[in-house]
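Data availability (excerpt). The following record was deposited with the supplementary files.
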Amino acid sequence: MPRKKPPRPKPDMLIAKIEAVEQSYYISENAGHERPVGDEAILDIVGHIEQISPGLKQHLDRQIDISLVCERSFSRDERTPVTNNPFLMLVNLRKGGCSLMAYLPADAFWALPQMIATGATHVDVRFEPPHHGSGTLLSLYFASAQRLADMA
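Predicted structure:
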């Protein structure tokens, strides 16, 4: 009889208030490469953890650095960019600092600064329970404090 896999643990969560946002952009050329030009836009968000799963209470009221990235590469033979797939990376919750990173699709990435400017004051983060301080990021949800409270 095959062994049953243990059930996946319930995701952990945190809610951070957005305190500061900074944007940057980078483009470079890599001669002799199939995709010789690539660019990357970065949205760095500094937040303050206001809520967190009970087992991670030691990180409550700490700063969290959120890096959201949009990346493209341009093929030699095409005038339009070759889009790269979005993916979620790790959430790091350690004594030395709290952070997370995700690569986003371009349309969502470029919409976020306006969303934050017009009322998305918080980010709800869901992630796999950390192992040695790191857990896989599962979701990000940007919304107002009121919207998050209404969902609770």
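Summary of structural features: Residues 12-151 form one domain.
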